[in-house]
Fold this sequence. Notes:
By secondary structure, the chain is mainly alpha-helical. The chain has a single domain, classed as Up-down Bundle (Methane Monooxygenase Hydroxylase, Chain G, domain 1), CATH 1.20.58.110. It has helices spanning 5-41, 44-63, 69-86. It is elongated. 16% of the residues are buried.
Amino acid sequence: xxxxxxxxxxxxxxxxxxxxxxxxxxxxxxxxxxxxxxxxxxxxxxxxxxxxxxxxxxxxxxxxxxxxxxxxxxxxxxxxxxxxxxx
Length: 87
């Protein structure tokens, strides 16, 4: 348990930020899943629109250090390859 006032405040801040980060990361993963589902369904137009949204969420997660920038680039690259296979 934190003893000082500043340590208590950091604990509160970290708890809030952890919840926020988990939500953002989960949201990003859900969007990636939507792209993959659209590709599996064979709907290239829906897949394109879902990819645009996914790309924004991946880039935002990378800029906020939720995921590594190379992991973001790799994920986007794989999604683009998946889109090209369908369309």
